[in-house]
Specification:
2 helices; 38% strand; mainly beta
């Protein structure tokens, strides 16, 4: 077991909006209790409580993988409308303490589903680069984590 640190950071935060998961246009999850996990240089991952996932469309497989930071992940296949996507969903049943909040929740591979966050459509949600937005926020030091975005105006409007 490895503990997240500066060389391999992992952060957990609550998604600030309702998130829906669509599979082939059908809602497969809908939650206001989503945990967003950010790990090192990987894309963010949303973890949904099972009560907010239509588990009847998921079947556990024999696949298990191990992450030295999170523990063992179990996998699920999606079965919906004669579509079968093997190992498209995973869950850490008993994660390591540093990420204990994701225990028993499920996450979806984004190449197999569409996410709809808040009032945004699935297509609009895809186009939002959350990592880019986060990099331009205050890290707590009082300064941006990246170079400032270019100004959209030349200066104050002249008053006539």
């Amino acid at each position: 077991m490895k503990t997240p640190d500066e060389s391999h950071p992992i952060t957990l935060e609550r998604e600030q909006a309702r998130v829906r998961v669509l599979f082939e246009g059908h809602e497969i999850a809908d939650s206001v209790d989503v945990i967003l996990l950010r790990e090192a240089g990987y894309p963010p991952v949303r973890y949904f409580p099972r009560d907010d996932v239509r588990m009847m469309f998921l079947r556990r497989t024999h696949k298990v993988t191990h992450c030295p930071y999170k523990g063992d992940a179990a996998y699920f296949t999606i079965y919906r409308d004669a579509k079968v996507i093997d190992d498209a969903v995973w869950s850490y049943e008993d994660p390591y303490p540093a990420v204990g909040e994701i225990g028993g929740r499920v996450a979806f591979y984004p190449q197999h589903v569409e996410f709809q966050v808040g009032a945004l459509t699935a297509a609009q949600t895809e186009s939002v680069d959350v990592g880019e937005v986060v990099r331009h926020t205050d890290s707590g030091s009082g300064a941006s984590q990246a170079e400032r975005w270019p100004s959209t105006v030349d200066g104050p409007a002249e008053q006539g």
